[in-house]
Amino acid sequence: MSKLTPPVGPHDHAQGSPEARITLVEYGDYECPHCGAAYPIVKQIQEELGDDLRFVFRNFPLSETHPHALRAAQAAEAAALQGRFWEMHDTLFENQQRLGEVQLHRYAGAIGLDVQRFVLDLDSEAVAARVRSDFLSGVRGGVNGTPTFFVNGARYDRSWDHDALLASLEELL
Description:
Layout lengths: L12 E3 L6 E7 L4 H17 L3 E7 L9 H12 L4 H10 L6 H10 L4 H8 L2 H16 L7 E4 L2 E3 L5 H10 L2
Parallel strand pairs: 2-3
Antiparallel strand pairs: 1-3, 2-4, 4-5
Helix pairs in contact: 1-7, 2-3, 2-5, 2-6
């Protein structure tokens, strides 16, 4: 069984309490249709499990298959530099068919970012390094497609449809 490497830490984008009994990590690609399908499922499970769940997202852009994936991941990380990672994350998944450069700039403005700073940060080494770091951690953990989930540090290879994923997570409670 593959293990999450590195473990979840303060560098990660996380929603929920660090003391939650379950940590669900997703390696995802903003242009991947399967990740797009998983997005509302994860949102619903977050709501259903409440304080028992911490959700972490790590970038795993499959650039050869999805031409906008890398730039979308960079947009999320550029937004993170202004404290708006989750707003951009949600916007990207909710607009998965519209991830061109012009749209990314529009989304930045729509979520309240300083757009000039966002544009500069998109091409910064800090943003590139963050996306690269997430991707390489996924490779080390055996990620070869998206979405790939880890539950409490162990790779989750069962179905991620709502009922199956919720039942698996509830077993841990």
